[in-house]
Write a structure and sequence with these properties.
This protein is an alpha/beta fold. Helices cover 39% and strands 18% of the residues. The protein has 25 helices and 24 strands. 44% of the residues are buried.
Length: 817
């Protein structure tokens, strides 16, 4: 399904020596050259920029009152609420940014207003209400006596709902970071960094960071009220910032750096002493320690997001993040983990179905992929659409046509938490008699402005919203063909002769010998990474993979989840050592056979306590053949599920000689040495070792039967042959029973000891049975010897299925050929 990727290398300009030395001061254990090159590429080119980027202590954060009059209005309205003892509601959102923003306001405002009596919170249900304010929720809060709503991560464009709340006597303070309305809404205050100049250090704040700035302003205004330090909120800020994929520059980077430190420090405490036991338990469940941005982006963030995707109601996540009740938090963390496991399974199912539908598309004539299905759960469509867009290089829109009625995209955000810059509706709100609506998510790549593309088809849509790289939409099911044709035509016209292809960019070119702790600590200077400062992508050329294997990931209860991870060792000519790696969402037989190039990220696995690469993209080397001077003598193809495929690829990559392939797992080193001698003999008899014959070890991981069952099978076959008077070859017996020739000889001897007659006629065996009560007596000495031989053989096969290739090379080559 994926098209051939286009690989690009970031433009390289050698940084001056003075800059390299400046970087090296921050990473004395390494040369600093790679980090210096990355900083230089990314526009950090002087001492002051470099120091402020690396060391948060050298950065001067902005005052919350940089938001100007709006912040002053918000603080004044909160003080008014305090004086009048008004009830306040925090209106949050159900994605990770919204949940953490709600939690920050719950803990932060909770220092000034009594929780659960004067202060409450409200999280919309993803499956029933969608993002943003809605009248039904406002009615609910009005009945509870609320006089003030403080939004977080939402609300900027909810003009009609804000007016409705005002009619009910409820003021609204909006804290948000999404697209601004054309005119200032009728609110008590609106704190949104988009009102600031783009170059302002607060411009890129996410919803949780804006909420934090409001609390910070309140702390500064009323410095003697709060009992807990403001810094206690920073771990939540870091989780929301990194999970929301905002540009980590200015105060975003500063707050994330501080927050990760707080997160790690709290996790290192004994479980009973943690300030946030729920966060600590989540980190334990995802086998993270909280010291890396990836612990959030791959661990905490997806788990928080999963709850609303699966259950709709994510309100308990605020309790999970803020409660000090360890027992209760453990219960909620386990519910969250189960939701994430379910999300993975659903996502995998939808990915498989989308892949099948893609085979029916002609991508050469498709500019925008639009696919629909009645069974797709809307909660994972954005995740899958993003993956398809990356793999195909084309904007992708996935639609669920299940049911009818309101799509849920509404005037807030799509199911991925994307706020609209405007809202369009060609229909009135749905009623039971309304035509069925399709609801979906769109993702873009290759700098295609997806929001404008969708907006231009507003006449065909019910609702939509988003930004250039992502959007949410709903439309009549009957309009899908028209919408698909129109949006494809529009993009084709705008592209002209430009071809859309999947693209991946590498930042640095290096070797396997460069990988490890030293490089990791050097690249860590760039963390936390995110939009505008991506994780460095490393190009490794002319390498190959060994000891690859894959398995389904398991959840915390040990139950299998349909999510694949391949593990492998990578090697090249720069080192005698291998380096471990993982490839998420892929099977081991997707790895190329022979020499290849790959793009990867360097990471530290806190669970396994090792440095490893995370594979991003891989392809056969341009000049790759299996029979080159520098090719490995022994090629590891173990555990390939289809040996025919291995042979086919070997043949395709070989220009002169096919590699010798061992498909049967050996049980001793002498067998391997014999094959190796054969390879060397062929090499010397042709063109010598300069173009050596390879040995491909391609046996599968054994799946042995219990030894007792193998003996019963042998006895059963012997009885059948005796009864039918049929002959059998030794090879036929070996294939039927699945044991070695040597073990079979032990089994035949046991048959003879127990009353069977075994005679050799030409190449065939004739077996006659003389009934005996001992044939199935496993305690009989002859049977016991056979069972012991089977167990030993199974142990040896298991060993050779898993032993590292480096050990095979060392031992199999121990004879001085």
């Amino acid at each position: 399904m994926p098209e051939q990727q286009q690989w690009t290398i970031a433009a390289t300009e050698q940084p001056p020596q003075w800059f390299i030395e400046a970087v090296k001061q921050h990473t004395p254990a390494s040369s600093g050259i790679y980090a210096a090159q990355l900083f230089w590429q990314r526009g950090i080119k002087d001492h002051q920029q470099l120091t402020a980027f690396i060391n948060y202590k050298a950065y001067q954060p902005a005052s919350p009152f940089e938001f100007g009059q709006e912040m002053h209005l918000a603080i004044a309205r909160l003080q008014q609420a305090d004086n009048a003892r008004e009830k306040i509601a925090i209106w949050g959102d159900f994605d990770a940014d919204g949940i953490t923003a709600t939690s920050v306001l719950w803990d932060g405002l909770g220092q000034f207003f009594k929780q659960n009596t004067q202060l409450i919170y409200y999280i919309p249900n993803r499956l029933k209400e969608s993002h943003g304010l809605n009248n039904q929720g406002i009615d609910n809060l009005a009945k509870q006596g609320c006089k003030l709503i403080v939004t977080c991560d939402t609300g900027s464009t909810n003009i009609e709902e804000i007016i409705y709340a005002k009619q009910l006597g409820i003021n609204v303070i909006v804290t948000d970071h999404h697209t601004l309305p054309a005119e200032r809404p009728p609110v008590a205050a609106i704190i949104n960094p988009r009102y600031l100049p783009r170059e302002h250090q607060l411009f890129h704040l996410s919803g949780v960071a804006v909420a934090y700035k409001l609390v910070e302003a309140l702390y500064q205004t009323l410095p003697n009220v709060a009992k807990h330090p403001l810094e206690d909120l920073l771990d939540l800020v870091a989780v929301g910032l990194i999970a929301d994929l905002v540009q980590l520059s200015g105060d975003c980077r500063y707050l994330a750096q501080l927050g990760i430190q707080r997160l790690q420090a709290d996790f290192q405490q004994p479980a009973a002493a943690r300030r946030r036991p729920g966060v600590g338990r989540l980190l334990e469940l995802c086998q993270k320690s909280g010291d890396r941005p990836t612990d959030i982006s791959f661990g905490l963030g997806p788990r928080i997001n999963a709850v609303s995707r699966i259950q709709g109601d994510a309100s308990f996540c605020v309790e999970l993040l803020t409660s000090r009740d360890a027992k209760r938090c453990n219960e909620l963390a386990e519910v969250t983990e189960l939701a994430n496991a379910r999300r993975k399974s659903l996502q995998k199912d939808v990915q498989a179905q989308v892949a099948q539908k893609l085979t029916q598309l002609d991508l050469s004539t498709t500019s925008v992929i639009v696919l629909e299905d009645a069974q797709w759960p809307a909660g994972v469509l954005g995740l899958v659409a993003g993956q398809v867009a990356q793999e195909t290089g084309r904007p992708t829109i996935l639609l669920s046509t299940e049911g009818s009625g309101e799509s849920g995209v509404g005037s807030g955000k799509d199911e991925e938490g994307i706020s609209p810059s405007s809202s369009s509706s060609s229909l009135s709100p749905s009623s039971p008699s309304s035509p069925p609506l399709a609801r979906g998510s769109a993702r873009s790549v290759n700098s295609v402005d997806l929001y404008q593309l969708v907006k231009d088809q507003a006449h065909l849509l019910h609702r939509f919203g988003g930004h250039p790289f992502a959007a949410g939409l709903s439309l009549l099911v009957e309009n899908i063909p028209l919408f698909t044709a129109a949006i494809n035509q529009q993009l084709r016209q705008s592209l002209g002769t430009t071809t859309l292809t999947p693209t991946v960019q590498a930042d640095l070119t290096l070797t396997v010998a460069d990988l490890g702790k030293e490089l990791f600590l050097e690249l860590k200077l760039l963390e936390p990474c995110g939009m505008g400062n991506p994780v460095p992508k490393l190009l490794i050329q002319n390498c190959w993979f060994e000891n690859s294997w894959h398995r389904n990931q398991q959840d915390w209860q040990g139950k299998k989840v349909q999510y694949i991870k391949t593990e492998f060792d990578i090697r090249d000519d720069s080192s005698r050592s291998v380096f471990p790696g993982i490839w998420w969402g892929h099977y081991k037989d997707e790895l190329p056979i022979g020499r290849c190039d790959c793009i990867a990220e360097l990471d530290y696995n806190t669970f396994k306590k090792r440095y490893e690469i995370r594979l991003i993209a891989v392809r056969p080397s341009v000049n790759s053949t299996l029979n080159t001077r520098n090719s490995p003598l022994i090629l590891d193809l173990r555990n390939q599920e289809h040996s025919a495929r291995a042979k086919q690829q070997l043949s395709a990559n070989s220009t002169q000689h096919s590699a010798l392939i061992i498909e049967d797992c050996p049980t001793n080193w002498d067998d391997l040495r014999a094959w190796l001698r054969r390879c060397l003999t062929i090499s010397r008899s042709t063109s010598g070792l300069d173009n050596q014959q390879q040995l491909a070890i391609a046996w599968s991981k054994p799946n042995p039967q219990p030894p007792n069952q193998i003996w019963l099978t042998l006895v059963g076959i012997a009885k059948y042959l005796s009864r039918t008077n049929q002959l059998v070859t030794r090879v036929q017996l070996l294939e039927k029973i699945g044991i070695s020739d040597q073990t079979l000889l032990v089994g035949i001897k046991a048959l003879k000891d127990l009353g069977f007659t075994v005679k050799l006629q030409d190449r065939y065996l004739q077996i006659t049975w003389h009934p005996s009560d001992n044939a199935e007596n496993f305690a009989d000495p002859a049977v016991a010897r056979f069972l012991a031989a089977v167990r030993e053989e199974q142990f040896q096969r298991q060993y050779f299925a898993e032993v590292p290739l480096s050990t095979i090379v060392a031992i199999a080559s121990s004879d001085n050929y």
